[in-house]
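During the no-cost extension, the postdoctoral fellow (Dr. R.K.) reprocessed legacy sequence entries with the updated structure-token encoder. One reprocessed record is reproduced below for audit purposes.
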Amino acid sequence: MDLVIRGGAILDGTGAPPRVADVAVKDGRIAAIGKLRANGAEIDATGLTVAPGFIDIHSHSDYTLLVDPRAVSAIAQGVTLEVIGNCGFGCAPIADPQMAAPNIYGFDNQVPLTWHRVGEYLDRLAAAKPAVNVIKLVPNGQLRRATLGVADRAATAPELAKMKALLSEGLDDGACGYSTGLEYPAERGAPDEELVELCKVVAKRGGLYASHTRRRDDDAVSAIDEAIRVGEKAGAQIQISHLLPRKTDEGEGERSLELIGRARSRGLDIAFDMHTRLYGTTFLSTIVPPWAQDDLRGHLQLQGQQAAHARLQEHRRRRRLGARGTARPCEVSAIFAQELWRPGAQ
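Re-encoded structure tokens follow.
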């Protein structure tokens, strides 16, 4: 054997209680489990737990794995596979890098966006040799940004056809599903009908539909119902992202679980993931209307934080933001100042 892990408590992922045994590895695969004789290199796991690698089904490491492929924070926790492209965010497909950049977690231009297709991104990721395995979802935010930008409306028929073609291309290139982030500016205008049509493309391939829902504060339960409704109409597998509503009302959490329970009872393939905290956070830009962010696109990347902050200080823009009831104008400039802040910046 290449390796014998001796005397650990094995948790095999089946739900069975742990049992103490040795695990032998040969050519990168488990070759034997039981009481094994000395046979090759050994690790003494007495008093420790031996388990399969964990799957992080909700990761945003799309870009950071290119910057630092060691994935130390994942590996240190036993994670060996990450599902990326969640919440409508991700590194591909890309039509215009300036338009795409705001929909990439952790983007800092250390690795320039020189690719367009999902397959080109996956080739770049493979060349980086990340320490974890990766499953890629096609992000709806990038589909919309590549097609209609940050527009608070439904896609037209030609635009929807282009989005479906980009999604199909991404699945052909190796993606295993589709994600939405309906709370975010690029996707707020997407109606049920548009989402169902895109989910149908995924369903035909047996792929996963992962939904960051439209509302997570007031009326969060109805947003979960929307995710179920869309997936069910399309016949897709459904994964509801960070299920826990932001409000501390325990009743909303119970009602959310009841909705999922009823969906499972009628045969839907549905699951969910949750935060490990009681209150989930996200980008502060979710309270800024899409028209304002479209107006600022590229400005944030090209001219820096001071220019964007100054632009949001303009009285005309502040009055318009305040008139829409989105947020107080003073809050808006503070929000972007916080989002754009970097250690050492003035």
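The longest strand covers residues 3-10. Residues 297-304, 327-346 have pLDDT under 50 and may be disordered. The remaining legacy entries will be reprocessed before the final report is submitted.
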